[in-house]
Design goal:
Length: about 280
């Protein structure tokens, strides 16, 4: 990010001022979302971790309703239910968990949901770009991640063997992590928090089916059926979103000439009024 800023590649922040508390909250929840997710994977099985990820979808729907009074249609709720059920059948093969890990997984759900909601709303409502928002929130996130290191990392993490291969692998991982964060932020700005979760679940199903068809991996008929069920629910959810957008387009097109004409009439009226007063 610093290199991009030095090369003047980073886009400028929007002229509309965003409250510092909002940016601080976004950086805070980003740090805890990342840290708690890694700890959850450490103490729980992959199946339990996937189950906690599925719980993010209803959390986002509830949070957006409470914060923005945003409602989801009944047909979309049914489609999301099919998606969640299919992903659960496809990925949740074991539910082994540690008591501490279960508490961490539950604590991770809320920061993860708030993180996605803020990323989406700031870009869509306040005209932030993904890179500009990352530039403003990354220092806050790094501060909290450094503060979490003594609590989340095992003892002896600072005595890591920094040889050439390890350093190169960490730098490559950091670059890939940046690209992953950037692509996720772009998706959140272009769609919504719920759609971003569905997109991630689609990726999971594609990986599972790709391993089965390309590399002869055998996850079992139950997992394959769950993946196809989830993709069917995703297709319905996508169709409902596209139908909603197409129904909104004629309304915007019909209201645009009226508003434009009213502005022109208003400006002409103001101009005539001013000439009379002079």
């Amino acid at each position: 990010m610093a290199v991009l800023n030095a090369l003047s590649i980073l886009p400028a922040c929007p002229p509309k001022s965003t409250r510092l508390s909002t940016l601080f909250t976004l950086g805070f929840v980003m740090a805890f979302s990342t840290g708690l997710a890694n700890v959850s994977l450490k103490y729980n099985s992959v199946g339990f971790y996937q189950m906690s990820k599925i719980a993010v979808t209803p959390s986002i729907v509830l949070a957006e309703f409470l914060l923005y009074n945003k409602r989801v249609s009944f047909s979309k709720v049914l489609a999301l239910t099919v998606v969640s059920f299919g992903v659960a059948v496809a990925t949740v093969t074991d539910l082994q968990f540690h008591l501490f890990g279960a508490c961490v997984a539950l604590a991770w759900i809320i920061p993860s949901a708030v993180n996605k909601i803020l990323w989406s709303s700031l870009q869509q409502q306040e005209n932030w770009t993904a890179l500009a928002l990352m530039w403003k929130t990354t220092p806050i996130t790094l501060f909290f991640l450094v503060a979490l290191i003594p609590w989340l990392d095992p003892p002896g993490a600072l005595s890591f063997n920094w040889n050439f291969n390890n350093t190169l692998a960490i730098l490559l991982s950091a670059i890939l992590g940046f690209l992953l964060q950037w692509s996720g932020a772009l998706a959140l700005g272009a769609t919504s928090a719920v759609t971003h979760v569905v997109l991630g679940q689609f990726k999971t199903c594609v990986i599972l089916l790709g391993n089965y068809y390309l590399f002869s991996s055998n996850p079992g008929k139950t997992s394959i059926s769950g993946a196809f069920t989830a993709i069917a629910g995703m297709s319905i959810y996508t169709y409902l979103n596209l139908k909603q957008q197409s129904s909104k387009a004629p309304r915007l097109a019909s209201s645009l000439p009226k508003s434009k004409l009213s502005k022109e009439n208003g400006s002409i009226h103001e101009g005539n009024f001013g000439s009379e007063s002079v």
